[in-house]
TrEMBL record:
The organism's place on the tree of life at top rank: Eukaryota
Name of the protein in question: Uncharacterized protein
InterPro entries: P-loop_NTPase, Small_GTPase
Species whose genome carries this gene: Microthlaspi erraticum
Gene Ontology MF term list: GTP binding; GTPase activity
Amino acid sequence: MESERAVTKKEGIDFAREYGCLFLECSAKTRVNVEQCFEELVLKILETPSLTAEGSGVKKNIFKQNPT
């Protein structure tokens, strides 16, 4: 399994640290930690008042969107 990684654990941790993000590992393929990752994400959102404040929304989208 370790050899099938797209990103090493260290790379993931370093990326999360650089961007001030939470680092969690899960696998859709083996279903390991998938539910726990969603639960942790929801808890972090609820613990961050600015994310649930009225009028809050996506200020900047870093992902490219395909025009429809």
